Amino acid sequence: MAELTSNDKGAIAEAEILAEATRRGYVALKPQSERRRYDLVIDTGPRLWRVQCKWGQLKGDVVVLRARTSRYTPNGYVRTTYNATEIDAFGIYCGQLDRCFFVPIEGLDPDQGMLHLRLAPAKNGQLVGVKLADEYSFGAIAQLEERSHGMRKVVGSSPTSSTPLLTLSVRADDLRSNLGSYIQRTAAGESFVVTRRGHRVAHLGPPPTTA
Hints:
By secondary structure, the chain is α+β, with helices and mostly antiparallel strands. The chain is built from 4 helices and 13 strands. Strands 1-2-3-8-9 form a 5-stranded mixed β-sheet. Strands 4-5-10 form a 3-stranded antiparallel β-sheet, with no helix packed on it. It has a 3-stranded mixed β-sheet with strand order 11-12-13.
């Protein structure tokens, strides 16, 4: 059997994600043109999701998604990633597991263009920044919608600084490695205490509202 090309993997991922959405009782729509960066629109009832379909690679106990894109221009290759103005979520199919996942765009680190879904907890016990694959199955879309709605409601209904969604602890080296992701989370209302060698050294949270 010939080795799958990147185009083959993309086509298989899109077909599997469309089928999985249909099995779950959702309505999957395909755009008639290719002038947008999403491959499907999934109608869950409460909302429409613009979904970019991707092939996820299994490495050990982690499903890895490389979400960067590359296109050739007269000035050479231009590498880009995705943002919330273009798509709402990634649909990920891992052929090695024959399993689909659904991850809102907020889960992407904009600086790295990468997603990591762990099949088992991290061996070092780290929780901050860790995404467990079971929390992003297609069966969890309802919970993801509820979480997303709650975040928008809190941020939009009152001053962000007075109603943080969560207050968590993050190590300084973890913050440094995943700064873009933490900035997105603080923009959504979360708050973090930054620690170094077990000592609190800083606070990261949404900016105060101006009068």
